[in-house]
Amino acid sequence: MTQSVVVQVGQCGNQIGCRFWDLALREHAAVNKKGVYDEAISSFFRNVDSRNRDVPDAHRGKICSLKARAVLIDMEEGVVNEILQGPMRDLFDSKQLITDVSGSGNNWAVGNRLYGSQYREQIVDNLRRTAEQCDCLQCFFVIHSMGGGTGSGLGTFVLKLLEDEFPEVCRFVTAVYPSAEDDVITSPYNSVLAMKELTEHADCVLPIENQSLNDIVNKIDQMARSGKLGSAVKQNSPVTSSKGAIKETEKPFDAMNNIVANLLLNLTSSARFEGTLNMDLNEISLNLVPFPKLHYLTSSLTPLYTLSDVNIPTRRLDQMFSDAFSKDHQLIRADPKHNLYLACALMVRGNVQISDLRRNIERLKPSLQFVSWNQEGWKTGLCSVPPVGHSHSLLALANNTCVKPTFVELRDRFAKLYKKKAHLHHYLHVDGMEQGCFTEAVSSLSSLIEEYNQLDATRGVFIPDSPRFSIAL
Fold first, then answer.
1. Is cis: bond before 290, omega within 30 of 0?
2. For 31-77, how does the pLDDT look when each residue is reduced to its tens digit (9 = 90+)?
3. 354 close to 276: Cβ distance less than 8 angstroms
4. Neighbours of 458 (CB within 10 A)
5. CA distance 336 to 174
6. Are 403 and 80 in contact (CB under 8 A)?
7. What pLDDT, on a 0 to 100 scale, did the predictor assign at position 196?
8. CB atoms within 10 A of CB 405
9. How far apart are CA 387 and CA 235, in angstroms?
10. pTM of the model
11. Angstrom distance (rounded) from CA 363 to CA 428
């Protein structure tokens, strides 16, 4: 069994990470009734004794104390302190934490250039220590936002470090993009500067849009109020207070973060549990990324739910597959069915047969347009363990040109600020930051958009195979 490490950076990254660890523990507890430290748990958790040392192999059968395979980084210590004072506090020790008090002031340059150089050695030491505690390190999962200073700046600095220090280990990034109504005025700068780093240094990026998450939460709330969903929440739900009432002030963020956490749970399920057709994490990059820069994968989940304890009626299996390709279930505002697929992965959990997978792929194929040179560009995975409280679920990952409008909108918002050179001085006073960084970043984004344009231009055009040499027999 391989192991993976989660690197959560900034307020958003740490909040999502905290939800992931909580829900992952719930999943393992539901399956591992006897509390045995097995290979499934070891994929994301260490088993340590009272001195915080790894339990020897001879005692692997008993769970003593679990520690998350994680590094927590934030230049404003508030969220990390909340985690350390909450129910997840025993999952982490001080050696896994890197914090400051002043924050990055919503400035990519402060996070990347200033704090990056200041904390570089400490970050490398933490990453190496965490990696050395793995028997077979397979993947780093980096979680951060794109709009803030620490998430976008320091998050992408860490990504470059991972490439330098662990070039053979796969790097998955879950990046949360700001909405157009974002209250951080400099978020277009931060996002475009971060995009250049993601394009150059990540193996796969799962872009998530705040606006899309908010739309999904509102949709689920409406369904709950109309009686289409059960809305009973257990007293010990992670989104309830000690009194059992939903925390109104935290509800929107808790619900949105839970959606992203469920995405990560489904993505990592085959690394954590057995299955008849498990998908190796490295296979996602190998099968879904035909060109180095085009590694942005849109994601959709079904069934959609925000709270782990909400009673969701079971979706019919075929309807679940149809939902995964509808725009209402995408975690960015996109409609993949009306755009061009380079490849698609279906990661199914629960009591689903391989024949069900094949039947639904054949049913859906006529309505989906794939590039001419990859008409059979499907990758499937089947994990036998469903999410807690559900009989089955589906995560669809698509390399699809539908991500382009998100990038075009981001570039347009960047241009409005940059045309007036507004707020530029806040960045240029940081050592190592020059105006050329902005032009290089927007040029990189434009180049990425152009690659998607060239692919879109081939839609509906049959491109015959290149002629081959004749071989005399």
1. no
2. 999 889 998 999 999 999 877 677 765 445 889 999 999 999 999 99
3. yes
4. 14
5. 19
6. no
7. 98
8. 16
9. 19
10. 0.91
11. 54
